[in-house]
Amino acid sequence: MSLIEPRLLKGFRDFLPEDMILRQKVISIIRNVFELHGFLPLETPTLEHLDILSGKYGEEGEKLIYKFKDQGERDVAMRYDLTVPLARVIAQYPELPRPFRRYQIQPVWRADKPQKGRFREFYQCDCDIIGVEDITAETEIISSVHDSLKALGFQKFCIKINHREVLNGLLAYAGLEQNFLLPLCRSIDKLDKIGPDGVKDELIQNGFSNAAVARILEMLQVNDPVSAFAMDLVSEKIGKFVKTGSAVLQLRKLFGYLKESGIADEYYKFDISLARGLDYYTGTVFETVVSEPKIGSITGGGRYDELISIFTKEKIPAVGTSLGLERLIEVIKIFELLPVPSSVSKALIVNFSEETTGYAVGVGQLLRANGIPCEIYPEPGKLQKQFKYADKLHIPYVLIRGSEEIADGSVVVKKLADGSQNRIPLENLIEFFKSTP
Amino acid sequence: MSLIEPRLLKGFRDFLPEDMILRQKVISIIRNVFELHGFLPLETPTLEHLDILSGKYGEEGEKLIYKFKDQGERDVAMRYDLTVPLARVIAQYPELPRPFRRYQIQPVWRADKPQKGRFREFYQCDCDIIGVEDITAETEIISSVHDSLKALGFQKFCIKINHREVLNGLLAYAGLEQNFLLPLCRSIDKLDKIGPDGVKDELIQNGFSNAAVARILEMLQVNDPVSAFAMDLVSEKIGKFVKTGSAVLQLRKLFGYLKESGIADEYYKFDISLARGLDYYTGTVFETVVSEPKIGSITGGGRYDELISIFTKEKIPAVGTSLGLERLIEVIKIFELLPVPSSVSKALIVNFSEETTGYAVGVGQLLRANGIPCEIYPEPGKLQKQFKYADKLHIPYVLIRGSEEIADGSVVVKKLADGSQNRIPLENLIEFFKSTP
């Protein structure tokens, strides 16, 4: 038979051990923070009926859904995000507690153009609170984002926060109709990239009047780092529009609660130019950015009070966020934010010869029974080869039990970093490892 | 818009929190045992080029692979097991250490007929050692199986062990040609179910001569619980066939090493009737059975020295095993083998009114900063509703901070199990939780 070339599909990745050790560490830290906030774990299937996912992700998203006919000629689709499956779950199991806090950490698939930092299979880490209109829910979500990033070692980041009704107020202040909302959001979303002049040019090209553009630019200036001050300005200028006024009150409350959550001022700010996906969100929106490297947002979320009503008549409010694992890991790698153990095993137990393999196995059993990860070199043979293996895997210690050590009930412990070695009675071996960092 | 019915595809499942808490616990225990044995984590993509998976799982398996054409008209297939992707990885990354120990815990998909206990999406937990011919590798794999099951609380199980060359010896002893191997294996595999008479009838129906059947039945009697004794018999009767003789020596060594690994005699046995999938395995085969409930094998594995050569010219020996998460969990649930916490949060912080929400948030921050999982009821309102919620979620404590407690810097801690309550100064709250089991 001719060989089959071992290769991957474009946009898909193998995670070899070195990557996996870091990924597992990051996931475990995020899971721990989510559980500290009382979120309960959920998993949904990879495949769903196509109509569950279809029509929820906009025109562009629709094209990116992996879909096919299964063996029973059913139209099926692969999980595209974790929010729509959650909405289905909420509608399908009315017995779930309300409010319902759930977290979900699973891969999703998008048939996107593969490019640097963009993959067709990637993990999302979501937490959501279902059944609550109060801004306390937002507080819990944003606190989870903040605490996750801090636990992952992030020192510089900013959670930008806005509200859809603030954008509507801005539209009204500029004297524009609802159909201008989308182009408005698209342009001001680029404020950081293209600056006020760039936004101005784009708006005018899109048919906005000079008067409208002037008022929009006036309002964009409220992006003051001190959120309370910015809120005062927004309140003064566009707070008269009823829903905007109430949104400003909500945001003020939120900022107060975030302070009580122990979040320092530098980690969040009101940002009038933040829009995110408007099809989806109905109230607050938020995302986290880092100044370095330039990789876009690392988390994103908001309130979506109408999504679940696709599946059930009951109106169920909801708010949540998604942490993008791949971008988080990119930043963690670049700035070496997390110490990552370079090996799993603490010791390699040398396998001299067939006559002594049994003794090596016995030492392994002793260590493992005491919670010390180790491995027996699975083939009797040359020491040199076994040392080289331990070196390649960064295993810190090599244990040697030859006939002499077997005779006197000891074991030689060799530290690979400096080549030093000690003969230790077997009964002291566990103590040695427990007292070694 | 008309409602979309929230529903699942047949054979697929949602894991709601109660299930997920148990699943995560089981996975974390297995991962820990794998790491104690020095296995390194690996993940491979959900989608592979179809030719990577196709033709590896036999005629029946082939039909069960989920396959389709993606947006780029490429033939793709969903992960069917964790062994073939591992073989691809080994061939694709020659820089990986050798021997290479890897574990992998991921879902796989098979378009099987959904029936009780059989799903189209399910998790496998695999560990394998690549690049080793020596039986020490088998020892490490079987020790991982044993230690995993013990760590999961299993008290009664048996790892059956056989060798393909023992089956070949049996065939030769009965005077049969190689083409009788498959029907022979199929029949003796049912020995436990249909007994020796059933096996006899089936063999005769399949055209085995009376003389051949007599010899086969003679050998089936060696299934003595004491493996060493059975090995003596096998050795005496069929050890003269060269490869069988050497296989018996290997098995004897293995049983000796398993003893050194701290595995009690009751947990493993030589079983001449164990065949497993013959397309695949080239040496040892093993599987774990439980007497109760009747659910077939809960782990299975063996040596596959030729699989990797589908992808590379180099001959690379390999041995490994797979633990079936779904069956393990079924047994764990039936016999309540693992204590499972009924809630994630240790405390619900009552949200009285808008005026006091900030204080509730502050208490949450204090607990979380000290590693105590808790949640703030995300909506100010009636106490009764909030207590009911805590009850439904089995949250053990409710913390109440009304105007009185805010004034004197305390918090009321109510234990829901017995309704008892204490007012505690805020600075003693962490101590209270740390000293409470």
Fill in the keyword field for this structure.
16 strands, Rossmann fold, BirA Bifunctional Protein, domain 2, five-stranded mixed β-sheet, homodimer, 2 domains, alpha+beta
How would you describe this structure to a colleague?
- Two copies of one chain form a homodimer.
- By secondary structure, chain A is of the alpha+beta class.
- The first copy, chain A, folds into two domains: 17-334, Bira Bifunctional Protein, Domain 2 (BirA Bifunctional Protein, domain 2, 2-Layer Sandwich); 347-434, 3-Layer(aba) Sandwich (Rossmann fold), CATH 3.40.50.800.
- Chain A has helices at 17-36, 50-53, 58-64, 83-92, 136-151, 164-173, 181-188, 191-205, 210-220, 227-238, 242-260, 325-334, 354-369, 383-392, 403-408, 429-434; strands at residues 40-41, 47-49, 67-69, 75-78, 100-109, 121-130, 158-163, 268-270, 284-289, 297-303, 318-324, 347-349, 374-376, 397-400, 410-415, 421-425.
- The first copy, chain A, has an eight-stranded mixed beta sheet with strand order 1-5-6-11-10-9-7-8. In chain A, strands 13-12-14-15-16 form a five-stranded mixed beta sheet, sandwiched between helices. A three-stranded antiparallel beta sheet of chain A has the order 2-4-3.
- The two termini of chain A are 51 Å apart.
